[in-house]
Amino acid sequence: MCGIVGYIGGQNAAPILLEGLTRLEYRGYDSAGIAVLGAKNAQVHRVVGRVRNLAAALPKRLTGKVGIGHTRWATHGPASEANAHPHTSEDGRICVVHNGIIDNADALRAQLADAGVTLASETDTEVLAHLIARSGADTLEDAVVEAVSRITGTYAIAVTDTAHPDRLVIARNGSPLIIGVGEREMFVASDLAALVRHTSQVAHLDDGEFATVFATGYRTFTVDESDTTKPATEIDIAAEDLDLGGYPHYMAKEIQEQPESVERIIRGRLDDRFGVARLDGLNLTPRELRGFSRVKILGCGSAYYAGQVGATMIEELARIPADAEAASEFRYRNPIIEADTLYIAVSQSGETIDTAFAVEEIKRKGGRVVGLVNVVGSTIARACDGGVYLHAGPEIAVASTKALTNMAIGFALIALALGRVRDLSNADGQRIIDALRAMPGQIKSILDEGPRIAEHAKEFATANSLFFVGRVRGYPVAREGAQKFKEISYRHAEAYQTSELKHGPLALIDAALPTVAIVPADELTDRNLAAVQQIKARGGAVLAVTHEDVDFGELDVPRIVVPKTEPELDPILLTIPLQLLAYHAALSLGYDIDKPRNLAKSVTVE
Ligand code: HGA
């Protein structure tokens, strides 16, 4: 959350900052601002709302070759011009943009106020500008080091100083920050999206690291080491991967990309000879894989539900106890970390702060943790002992689709690896491999049903409240379906285990509360059909997401039929129509699908 950009070089900074902010807008979009260093002072412009509002509000001639910019997702103080970043010192000399939360901001604000400083915003960030300006240190770098030594919490910051217009000083602790290296120009950003048009050479700051960035180079350092030498590495993202490519929304594009993104995650990883997945990146020998007696999966939001899908797959295929837990709760309950448990952290961005903290907690206690992450080189990917990259390609829409599908497939691969060093036979391994290979084509056939699903979505979009129900393998599918629906259509949608309906929620069923029921052809079909019957008997409308073979008999229920795969993998395909259902519901309601209210992608604050 919150997007940071910075530029220093030979070009006019403002257009580069604006373009970068537009690319980072999915990280936060309640307000935006830039500061550009002019001949004598910093020119600061901030607006409430989108980057396009900022672009419209800028003066025609805004010249300066050094600047910083920010797109905000508020944590301290509402979205207002005064709270938008950059924040400045009283004399306007220091400008700061910040991603993160300063935990002791109240105390520092009080101290600054007592010292006679007039605070201009309600944010935590503003204290940094004043602390840096008032530090009295000899260099800007020392002033930044001193200021951050007084704060507790998380930050990625970029700082300009009109007294040192030849540099940006940046620092990171808990929130991502990267440096892009150009030809006599340098860029700073929260993530690659803002840089790929300018450079493919990137250096990642680590927690506790600072950098001075000049037009011609940079120096990274920590409090203890004056030079931590961080060479830039080549990144592999094509700029056009970040464009809409003719689609009306990123979410539509990303849903449609799934056949190819699934091809990418399985490419080179399926071993037909031994019916196993080759996952060298896990850094686990067969003996180590064999030594785990439990699996614990940690993720947040939809990644947590993908983790539930994964836990069931691992239990079914590898027969090891496995469960998923919300990473956001994990470290707060003093978890017991066991040496024979394999911990798996799941995150699209690899920057999800709650998941990153969970990884830290596991490592601190000596546990073995691997990542299932999309963004190469991200914080979680680097912190883990190994992992499986999702290769879903850049995901821009706040509501995740293709990355989630690849998470579930990633779990199938891990389940194969764990299963084949245990009792899963070569033939069973091959059965899963064949099913994974068929999946891109099957997904394509579901996507072809889009127009029909759109018709159902329009009907459901008018309901104030909906249930999504499924059981065992189908329950995380229902949870993800409800989550997606509420995220972008702002309808109340709740997921239940189908089996739990009669224990309470059935009381709510009437003609105004429709239910989306996950009814796969499996050992629970009859039980699921009985529940559908009970809903219908109480006047509730039902839409079934189901397989061809399921016989609904006399039950008059509209159906979305998905192709059957192996039972363990059914949840992957059953989820796809629910993405389309949510998308088309939001579309018919006219909402901003890619940037739902109150949310942002890449949750980098607690
Ligand atoms: N605490 C700062 C920055 C918020 C942030 O990083 N959000 O992702 C503020 O509220 O402005």
UniProtKB/TrEMBL annotation:
InterPro entries: GATase_2_dom, GFAT, GFAT_N, GlmS/AgaS_SIS, GlmS/FrlB_SIS, Ntn_hydrolases_N, SIS_dom, SIS_dom_sf. It is found in: Cytoplasm. It catalyses: D-fructose 6-phosphate + L-glutamine = D-glucosamine 6-phosphate + L-glutamate. It is an enzyme of class 2 (transferase). One of its GO terms (molecular function) is glutamine-fructose-6-phosphate transaminase (isomerizing) activity. The active site is at C2, K601. One of its GO terms (cellular component) is cytosol. The keyword Magnesium does not apply. Its EC number is 2.6.1.16. Residues 2-216 form the Glutamine amidotransferase type-2 domain. Its main location: cytoplasm. GO terms for biological process: carbohydrate metabolic process; fructose 6-phosphate metabolic process; protein N-linked glycosylation; UDP-N-acetylglucosamine metabolic process. Residues 284-424, 456-596 form the SIS domain. SUPFAM superfamilies: N-terminal nucleophile aminohydrolases (Ntn hydrolases), SIS domain. Keywords: Aminotransferase, Cytoplasm, Glutamine amidotransferase, Repeat, Transferase. Catalyzes the first step in hexosamine metabolism, converting fructose-6P into glucosamine-6P using glutamine as a nitrogen source. Homodimer. PANTHER family: GLUCOSAMINE--FRUCTOSE-6-PHOSPHATE AMINOTRANSFERASE, ISOMERIZING, GLUTAMINE--FRUCTOSE-6-PHOSPHATE TRANSAMINASE (ISOMERIZING). This is Glutamine--fructose-6-phosphate aminotransferase [isomerizing]. It comes from Amycolatopsis eburnea. The gene is glmS.
